[in-house]
Amino acid sequence: MSAGIETDRKEYYFQLESTQRGSLDITSWLAWFLDCLDRAIDNADHMLRSVLLKAHLWQRNNREPVNDRQRKAINRMLEHDWEGHMNTSKYARMTKCSQDTALRDIKELLERGVLIRNTSGGRSTSYRLVIPD
Questions:
Q1: pTM to 2 decimal places
Q2: For 83-119, how does the pLDDT look when each residue is reduced to its tens digit (9 = 90+)?
Q3: Burial, 91: exposed, middle or buried (Cβ in 10 Å; 0-12, 13-18, 19+)?
Q4: CATH 1.10.10.10, applies to 66-133
Q5: Kindly report the CA angle at 61 between 59 and 67, in degrees rounded to 5?
């Protein structure tokens, strides 16, 4: 809740000041507060879903350990600002390895069911995470 108030602090202070200077009617303050609470609950729900997804994915994948490069790539793909799909070039840049090593790592993740190949092929071959049920 405090993060929501901090994000919208101008409106918070406006609502607080309006309520203190106006009549004893706090309807607008309650409406703003409940809206802020609703956003805070939605944000907490989104964050919890993300954490549980990561925990479930790692619980499933840690049966056989992954190397540091693979762990870095998977964690990056799990971040909320990840866009697009993984390909060997992106993997190689991200993990600072050669294209050949990137391809070997990706193939291993494909075999283990961590990644799945997208429908495009050839030079456009890309991969995405297999999201557990």
A1: 0.67
A2: 889 999 999 999 999 999 999 999 999 999 899 999 8
A3: buried
A4: yes
A5: 125
